[in-house]
Amino acid sequence: MLPETDHPREACGVFGVYSPGDDVARLTFYGLYALQHRGQESAGIATSNGTEFSLRTGMGLVSQVFDEEDLAYLRGHIAIGHTRYSTSGGSLACNAQPIVVKDLHTGEPIAIAHNGNLTNAEILREDLEAQGVVFETSADTEVIAHLLARAPGAGWEERFHHVMRRIEGAYSLVIMTRDQLIGVRDPMGVRPLCIGRVSDTGWAIASESCALEHLGWSMDREIEPGEVVIVDAEGMRSFCPVTPPRRRAICTFEYTYFARPDSVLGGELIYRTREEMGAQLAREHPIEADLVIGVPDSATPAAIGFAREAGIQYREALIKNRYVGRTFIQPDQRIREAGVSLKFNALADVLRDKRVIVVDDSIVRGTTTPRVIQLIRRAGAREVHMRITTPPIVSPCFLGVDMATRSELIAANQTVDEIRRHIGADTLGYLSLEGLNQSTGQRPEDLCNACFTGRYPLNVQMQMDRLEVARQTDAEAVAAESLHRAGRP
Questions:
Q1: Contact, 157 vs 229, CB < 8 A?
Q2: Which residue in 11, 96, 240, 485 has its CB near the most CB atoms, within 10 A?
Q3: Which of 12, 194, 210, 251 is catalytic?
Q4: What is the value of pTM for the model shown?
Q5: CB-based contact 302:296 (threshold 8 Å)
């Protein structure tokens, strides 16, 4: 692994397509490619030709996992795919998705891919194990799969009614049966999910609209919180098997960081919301300066919005090495010490003797931001003023985002001025919660801001109690698999 970033770790990306006559594996490959920003640890595709399933999964980027031979093997008219960053379950080959289980009603396979995190997964797993279920992964996705495979009911509506009343937390799902593609979004709508038309008989489901548009398809609509969408030979139909809660809980980090700027969420183009965050930040924390720069790539629109609102020149001064990503080659000590310099290069001709406003989307642990500021100062900047498009992160997430424990969150343990001194900035300003909510274009009551407030949209106490144990178990399993790959006992 390359040196860790000081950002929340991505959620996962899911993609599914039903399109008779098309090369659905190749379409899914490119759909996942467009969603690569949501997870870089593993990828997988499952297909159905109406009688048989085919499956390929592996560790690494989408382009590392699949080749032409794999796509030739993955034949059919239905496909689902997944690109993963681990939240529940470690970064292990066995946890790569889609996961396939046997439907106890029909004896046929069901494949499932999941973006999110269940808050009651451990209780459900223990209950299923007591019923004789043997788990092959540590991911909560397999819990959902077995619940669905065993759920009572004559049809999908009854079965999803049973399952969705039992599972708690965040889940956007794509599911494949022998002859159907199914999309499911949890009743709070924490993670995004949308659907678009491929042809007169074809449909696609994706975490973000950008994955559809890359393939020349337009988004038909976002799948509603609590909605189940089924696509088969009869077309598309949908239903809501449970009564939606009074509130939604769309993750605000989708707007600030996770989603691509060319995606639409909650009816809003992400690029425009990030521009508005930057503009609001300029209103809340004005400062005299010579230029505004953004930390690529997620903060670039916000930096442009800040510069426009403040009437200060926007420049690109941090150049990102876009080929720095996941690798199984361990960096040596010199590379580790290089740290952020491996990811960014600062333009001295732009920064020399300038008062610089640096816009970024978050500070989590406070590990990378000081290195970015040092890089800018070494390039000759006279002053460095840090501006962040989110409020201070004071609580961990239990709904599908890995952003460390409370003890690791710098804002949970230090004041803003202490953080300023730690990162080495001349000034530091965070966007207010009110400013963030307003910038998204959503009602505040429809957003999940638990990482900024500590107020969660559901009970997460059990998750909090078990988090440290789970992290330690996953870390030990990952270390063991790394030694195994290296050929060491």
A1: no
A2: 11
A3: 12
A4: 0.88
A5: no
Q: φ and ψ at 289, to 5 degrees?
A: -160, 170
Cβ atoms 108, 150 nearer than 8 A: no
Question: Angle at CA 360, nearest 5°, toward 318 and 425?
Answer: 85
Alpha-carbon gap, residue 156 to 59, rounded angstroms: 32
Q: Token pair for residue 425?
A: 């900035």
φ, ψ for residue 297, nearest 5 deg = -105, -25
Residue 240 designated active-site: no
Please give the Cα distance from 168 to 5 (Å, whole number): 29
Closest C-alpha to 191, from 248, 229, 273:
248
- Tokens describing residue 123: 């209780």
The CA-based dihedral angle spanning residues 22, 25, 27, 32, taken in that order and rounded to the nearest 10 degrees? 160
Per-residue pLDDT of the chain (489 residues; tens, 9 = 90+): 334 456 665 569 999 999 999 999 999 999 999 999 998 889 999 999 999 999 999 999 999 999 999 999 999 999 999 998 755 445 556 678 999 999 999 999 999 999 999 999 999 999 999 999 999 998 899 999 999 999 999 899 999 999 999 999 999 999 999 999 999 999 999 999 999 999 989 999 999 999 999 999 999 999 999 999 999 999 999 999 998 777 899 999 999 999 999 999 999 999 999 999 999 999 999 999 999 999 998 899 999 999 999 999 999 999 988 765 544 444 454 554 555 667 889 999 999 999 999 999 999 999 999 999 999 999 999 999 999 999 999 999 888 777 778 889 999 999 999 999 999 999 999 999 999 999 999 999 999 999 999 998 887 655 555 554 455 555 555 455 555 545 554
Q: What angle do CA 219, 225, 230 make, to 5 degrees?
A: 60
473: left (phi over 0), alpha (psi -120 to 50) or beta: alpha
Domains, in order of start, for the chain: 13-245 (3.60.20.10), 271-447 (3.40.50.2020)
Which residues are CB-contacts of 361 (< 8 A; sequence separation ≥ 6)? 7, 256, 257, 295, 298, 299, 302, 388, 389, 390
The DSSP result for 39-82, as a single string, is --SEEEEEEE-SS-EEEEEEES-HHHH--HHHHHH--SSEEEEE
**Helix (H) and strand (E) counts for the chain?**
18, 24
